[in-house]
Amino acid sequence: MTRHIGDVILEVEDLHTYFFTRLGVVKAVDGVSFSLRQGETLGIVGESGCGKTMTALSLLRLVPRPGARIVQGKILLQGENLLDKSENEMRQIRGRRISMILQDPQTSLNPVFTIGNQLIEALKIHHYSHARELVQRAISALKQVRVAAPERRVDDYPHQMSGGMKQRVVGAIAMSCEPHIIIADEPTTSLDVTIQAQYLRLLREIQEETGLSIIFITHDFGIVAKMCDRVMVMYAGRAVETGSVRDIFNHPSHPYTQALLDSVPKLEERTARLYSIEGQPPLLWKLPLGCRFASRCSYTEARCETEYPPSFSVAEGHTADCWRLQGEWQTYQSSVSKT
Amino acid sequence: MALAIPQRVPWYMAPLRLLRAIFQVRQFPGVAMAILVFLLVIPGLFAEWIAPHDPIKGSLALRLKPPMWEKGGSITYPLGTDKVGRDVLSRIIYGARVSLRVSIEGIVVSGFIGTALGLMSGYFGGKVDALIMRLVDISLGLPIILVALVFVAALGPSFTTVIALVTILLWARYARQIRGETLSIKERDFIARARVAGASHFRIMFRYLLPNVVNTLIVLATLQVGFVIIFESSLSFLGAGIPRPTPAWGLMVADGRELIVTAWWISMFPGIAIMLTVLSFNLVGDWLRDHLDPKLKNI
């Protein structure tokens, strides 16, 4: 692997994105912090509705309106706080500095335009001009995502392409303005397994060529192991554990991460019943006072019910929010202040 | 359907074939298109060269001449003359121009306003949507003939008044239809992708949403041409439309109504012109609706 991991380019501090609904305040993202280095892939893992996608949309300030609002926090992109930007300045950032690949390639392309047209459109939004040059750029963008015969393919309509091909075109559009960060929101869930592997390999190759940072949202630990450098596990709007892929797989420290890893079926064992985590995640508008996982956790103590645990540093760059770690490990904050 | 085998057909079968062609209009609107071209477009554009007589000046000596096949008719006035001696055929030919202009301008203006408001309503949702949809409800609830009479009483009958009335009546249908389509299209990922790529609201509405509703717009416009022509005729009939003596079909029908028993041709021929035009536009609209659906293409 010839990847160079550089400086921190994105830093998210204590991000809170709430929905204000008739039922009350839905805390979709409730105090998430993480950082992303240049050339690095960060995986965000968690079950449906835990706030993965809302975290991603918050980064682009595209939370669904009316209803949702980023109420607190900082999003520092190369030192600039995105939450202080005007809507016009944000439009310059979207697509150009932070881009996103969406889940479903079938509806990600406009059915009434050729893909060449749509690639050019993406460039035009950011005022790249000169018609001749635009076509060349569109073709080279297709080449970059390994579309065969790109000169001919630019004139195709989306319905003339297969799902895997469409997703690659969507990737080409996302990367056409050479962003620093790409957020991939479960880009492979609607592809079959072989195409999925191909697509992931392609993303890695492009990352090596361009030094792009990727935030990879998924619920598939296999993909995490293949793609990511670091992982953030989310549960009910909070990041419960963050660490390098190796640490998370070898020493999962939060009971939720342990349970998640246990529920991945293994080929070598034959079990009558697949493991699953008992119970349901808490309702996001009626969150418990203490640890959100307490009602489903097998290690629950009295304190878990009343007080949310701070982040404890388990190893270098590996933190988890669980009271069980208090004896063995210091809190993250105190360990940071020491170094 | 079995393939038609071309073969020699005796001349006396021609009317039968024409009849069959008319019944097959739903599959191919050739006949409807032809009627439109001959009745509306060519006369409308080239009235000065085609019409045999002046449509406004008549001669009282030649008043109430019957069509040429009736007793007393002559080839000079093929469809007869009206009560001030003007040639009915020439007036129908010039009247096509009025119908053409009213339908094109009325449809374009109302389509433009309705589409813009419909897109905004569907795309922004919330308060914008509520406001525009209430306006639509009000517009659809207006007693339009009454409004027309008030308008004419206040502003006097003119071409502009007719266009304004057509717009007031029609924009709401566009707005409502386009809003509905926008609601479903804006949920698709390519709109989300455009937002992620940094496109502005304006750009999303006009470069991403609008091209996806163009088919609907075309069909809607075609189906409403007939309606506009009838509406203009009704306004003219009531004296609230095109001012006299401009030849308009509805006005001609109105003019002939006291003499319907003795000189039926004055109102009958413009009436037939209205009916044929509207019918053909509706047939073309139906055909377009069936054929512009992208899912039915290549089948």
Order of helices and strands of chain A: EEEHEEHEHHHHHEHEHEEHHHEEH
Q: How many helices of chain A in DSSP terms? A: 13
CATH third-level topology of chain B: MetI-like fold
Order of helices and strands of chain B, N to C?
A: HHHHHHHHHH
Shape of chain A: globular
Number of strands of chain B: 0
Percent helix among the residues of chain B? Answer: 55-70%
Question: What does this protein look like?
Answer:
The complex is a heterodimer of chains A (339) and B (299). Chain A has 339 residues and is α/β, with parallel strands linked by helices. Chain A has 2 domains: 242 residues, Rossmann fold (3-Layer(aba) Sandwich); 72 residues, no CATH class. Chain A has an 8-stranded mixed β-sheet with strand order 6-7-8-3-9-10-12-11, sandwiched between helices. In chain A, a hairpin with a 2-residue loop joins β11 and β12. In chain A, α4 crosses α5 and α4 runs parallel beside α7. The longest helix of chain A has 18 residues. The C terminus of chain A is likely disordered. The mean pLDDT of chain B is 82. Chain B has 299 residues and is mainly α. The relative contact order of chain B is 0.13. In chain B, α7 crosses α8. Chain B starts with 13 loop residues before the first helix and ends in a 7-residue tail after the last helix. In chain B, 68% of the residues lie in helices and 0% in strands. Chain B is built from 10 helices and no strands. Chain B has one domain: MetI-like (MetI-like fold, Orthogonal Bundle), CATH 1.10.3720.10. Chains A and B meet through α2, α4 and α7 of A and α7 and α8 of B.
